[in-house]
Write a structure and sequence with these properties.
Among the domains are: 31-113 and 199-239, no CATH class; 255-285 and 293-414, no CATH class. 22% of the residues lie in helices and 31% in strands. The chain contains five helices and 15 strands. It has helices spanning 2-17, 111-136, 149-158, 181-193, 255-281; strands spanning 31-38, 44-53, 56-59, 77-82, 85-98, 101-110, 233-239, 302-311, 320-328, 338-346, 352-361, 370-377, 386-393, 396-405, 408-414. The relative contact order is 0.15.
């Protein structure tokens, strides 16, 4: 009987941890993770979050800051990834010190712009290749040497007397002619475009742009900032020369499945808010017994700004659900604004398991922080997604990276409040 029970336990736990049994191909690093603030006017800033060195996470805003941190070195390229799908490239051109820490300034290019530039360059190259035969066609032209004008006089007098039949072929080079200007320019071009390195040998570097993609922008200093105007999108961005290929993390749902998940998640969130309000406001008085004063109204939360995301973080076809919302309780004796964050996973039987839940209110942020969900991102380069949150307290905000393994919510990195 004991053997049968042990076999059943192994059979139940095996699907949960099967995806973690294989040896993970973690990036050797350095791998930097930042948050891209992309405004409606096309301007963007980068907030450094973490930098991974040999599997360990460090605060990217302070790592190797001399004074600019390593994650914001000029020329570093970040790829912005929305739920694992590339949105474009951000090239750092300077670092700006702010009261909350360093912020990277630079040039943003969306995937559409990169594709358009590649097609335009291809068309221009084809156009130049088509014009090349016309430039070398026709009869040969004698050129007067700049160093010896007397010898060129004889060349000019004898050239018209030559018969058309005896003229050299177009493919033959002209006698005593110097190299053409186009060839001379090509020989000197590599020397002028050769990049120079100012970094010390052996120092780890992040993903840098190729010399041909240099933006020629000066590194900004002080408060010379490019203003961000319009609505701002928050998109995770990664800089790494290696690591696994990015893949989409969004879990595809049918409309009826989405409504089913949303109903179950909102029900759990409402119960969490109600439990928090009951702890703060106390139990409502029952209306069955006569009382001298009116009974307290029932604590019935109303959710607002509900956002639900569903991910397949480990390519195991097991959805992980994230819901965030604000809430209020009408007719409560103390009007409080609640915020709730909820993470669940669905098992093979279709049941939701609560992995993480945090509910707080605007009067107790010094004790319980509120969690703002950013997105799913591969923070360590192993091809599996983690959840990126921003924690906000009275003392400031910080970022946290968490992995969902079974019913556990594993902390990979948590920054210090104040950023």
């Amino acid at each position: 009987m004991l053997a049968v029970i042990s076999g059943l336990i192994i059979a139940v736990c095996l699907p949960v941890f099967a995806q973690y049994a294989k040896k993970r191909q973690v990036s050797k690093g350095p791998r930097a993770l930042g948050l891209l603030e992309l405004a409606g006017n096309g301007k963007a800033h980068l907030v450094p979050i973490t930098i991974m060195i040999n599997g360990k996470f460090y605060d990217a805003g302070a790592y190797k800051a001399d004074p600019v941190p390593m994650a914001l070195q000029s020329g570093t390229v970040y790829e912005s990834l929305k739920s694992g799908v590339s949105q474009g490239l951000f090239t750092v051109s300077g670092a700006l010190p702010e009261t909350t820490g360093w912020v990277g300034d630079g040039k943003w290019r969306s995937t559409a712009e990169i594709k358009a530039d590649a097609e335009r360059n291809k068309a221009e190259a084809a156009k130049k290749a088509y014009k090349a035969p016309d430039e070398i066609s026709g009869p040969p032209k004698l050129r007067r040497p700049q160093s010896d004008k007397t010898s060129s006089t004889g060349s000019q007098t004898t050239a018209p007397e030559s018969s058309p039949k005896s003229a050299p072929s177009p493919d033959a080079p002209a006698p005593n002619s110097p190299p053409s200007s186009s060839n001379a320019g090509n020989t000197s071009a590599p020397a002028s475009n050769s990049p120079t390195s100012i970094e010390s040998p052996g120092r780890p570097v992040l993903r840098h742009q190729a010399p041909s993609e240099t933006t020629h922008e000066q590194t900004k200093a002080g408060t010379q900032d490019e203003p961000l105007k319009g609505p701002i999108q928050l998109i995770p961005a990664v800089s790494d020369t290696g690591g696994a290929e990015s893949r989409p993390y969004a879990y595809q749902l049918k409309p009826e499945e989405e409504q089913k998940f949303l109903k179950a998640m909102t029900s759990i969130a409402e119960n969490d808010v109600k439990a928090r309000a009951t702890k703060l406001l106390g139990q409502p008085e029952p209306a069955t017994k006569p009382a001298r004063k009116a009974a307290r109204p029932a604590l019935t939360p109303e959710l607002q700004n509900v956002q639900m995301h569903v991910f397949d973080l480990t390519s195991s076809n097991e959805p992980v659900l994230v819901l965030t919302a604000t809430a209020s309780i009408p007719n409560a004796r103390i009007p409080l604004q609640y915020t709730t964050a909820l993470v669940t996973r669905e098992d093979i039987y279709g049941e939701l398991h609560k992995v993480f839940a945090q509910t707080t209110d605007d009067q107790h942020l010094d004790v319980i922080p509120k969690y703002e969900f950013i997105d799913a991102v591969d923070s360590d380069g192993d091809g599996r997604g983690e959840l990126l949150f921003r924690k906000t307290q009275d003392s400031g905000s910080a970022f946290g990276i968490y992995a969902v393994i079974g019913d556990r919510f594993w902390t990979l990195f948590e920054g210090k409040p104040g950023r």
